[in-house]
Amino acid sequence: MCLVKERILKSALNLFWRYGIKSVTMDDIARDLGISKRTIYQHFSDKEAILAQVIEEEITSQKCEMQKLDEIAANPIEQIIYASGQMRDTLANMNPTLLYDLKKYYPKAWELFQTYKKEHLIKNIQDNLTEGIKQGFYRPDIDVEIFSLLRIEQTVMAFDPTIFPVRNFNMMHIQMQFLLHFLRGILSEKGFEYYNTIKDKSAIEINIHEK
Amino acid sequence: MCLVKERILKSALNLFWRYGIKSVTMDDIARDLGISKRTIYQHFSDKEAILAQVIEEEITSQKCEMQKLDEIAANPIEQIIYASGQMRDTLANMNPTLLYDLKKYYPKAWELFQTYKKEHLIKNIQDNLTEGIKQGFYRPDIDVEIFSLLRIEQTVMAFDPTIFPVRNFNMMHIQMQFLLHFLRGILSEKGFEYYNTIKDKSAIEINIHEK
């Protein structure tokens, strides 16, 4: 990819992340880069075109991160704990309106995220659950399909300002509470014993105690 | 309330429960009762008027049931276990499209349910959580406000056919999995020990093992 295009995507990602999508204009991106709007239009037809590519690249990079974590995790519980660390990094400085903006105003870009959710995220959680049950860390009576959907939808729920108004709740705190609760709810006795030996390394616990 | 009016409400509740709201007509209610549509219109201006009153009565009766359970429950965990039994009864034979029908096609009636959710259900869960923490059955680090919202919203989520298509999932099974998971996720060690001594009485466990 040419350098200018890459810089535009990087600037847009950064601005969307901090201010949400709706409030960022092509002028803002041009100003941020110190280039003319005309230069931006040479590469992208409009803000939605930038947004689509920003999301595609973000998805690719998240997939990559998740794969790395899965490789270094010794077992499914560690995998979730590492994922909580990744989530912590992703959410830091993220404007909490981002996902809702996407759903409400940018249906095409939202679709990209939905496809990623269905084809990748849910599968990743299902694999974690199946493996955790197999290794005896999770309860054998949890329904993998139902809990993979619960996990993903509660992550999305935390972004919904009609349920968790931005001014009253801290997004990171909600997500960490959800993740820790989700994990504890699926653990078997063996899983609990193991979790208690490693929880001090966990970003979930760290976050909750920091609050 | 006069007898005819009561019979109309009872018939409508029964039909809505079994077939959802959208597909039930004034003709169906008249036919079910063996009375003329004219008689129904003497008491209710339209189906929405019947629906509103059906919901109000259902809410009153649920409040009453919840209060009874709260009185006989020895502690917050028993309260949740009894509530699972009540939920089991309520969901038996309930058309899973009911709640979504309400949200999509009957916004005024949906508002009644929303108000009940905000003013009564959430408070009831908050009280349970606060008391459970106080008595040492639940973890002290759970955020009562966040988890009362999670609990109520995951109950609603189970009714969402865009997440859990009716043909692929059994509503009761989802709800019992959610409830058991929610409870396990909030328990302290003391809570777990106690829960293990009484779980065989629990409708949640019974349902999961029956599946």
From TrEMBL, chains A, B:
Question: What SUPFAM superfamilies does the record point to?
Answer: Homeodomain-like
Q: Where on the tree of life does the source sit, at the highest rank?
A: Bacteria
Sample GO molecular function, one term: DNA binding
Recorded hits in Pfam families, A to Z, give:
TetR_N
HTH tetR-type domain location: 2-62
Q: Keywords of this protein's UniProt record, alphabetized?
A: DNA-binding
DNA-binding residues (ranges): 25-44
- Name the InterPro entries on file: DNA-bd_HTH_TetR-type_CS (IPR023772), Homeodomain-like_sf (IPR009057), HTH-type_TetR-like_transc_reg (IPR050109), HTH_TetR (IPR001647)
Q: Tell me yes or no: is Heme among this UniProt entry's keywords.
A: no
Please identify the protein, giving its name as recorded. Answer: TetR/AcrR family transcriptional regulator
Query: Which organism's genome codes for this protein?
Result: Dyadobacter sediminis
